[in-house]
Amino acid sequence: MASHRRPKQPSRTRVTVLTATAAAAVALSSQAAQAAPKPSKEDVKAKVDKLYEEAEQATEKYNGAKAKQDKLKEQVDDLQDKVARGQEDLNKLRDGLGSMATAQYRSGGIDPSVQLLLSSDPDEYLDRASTLDQLSGKQAGALKQIGDKQRTLKQQRAEATTKLQDLAETRKSLGEKKEEIQGKLAKAQELLNTLTEKERQALAEKEERANRSNDRVDLGDDVPESQRAAAALSAAKTKIGSPYVWGATGPSSFDCSGLTSWAYAQAGVQLDRTSQAQANNGTRISQDQLKPGDLVLFYDDLHHIGLYAGNGQVLHAPKPGANVRYESINNMPFMFGVRV
Question: Whole-prediction pTM value?
Answer without folding.
Answer: 0.69
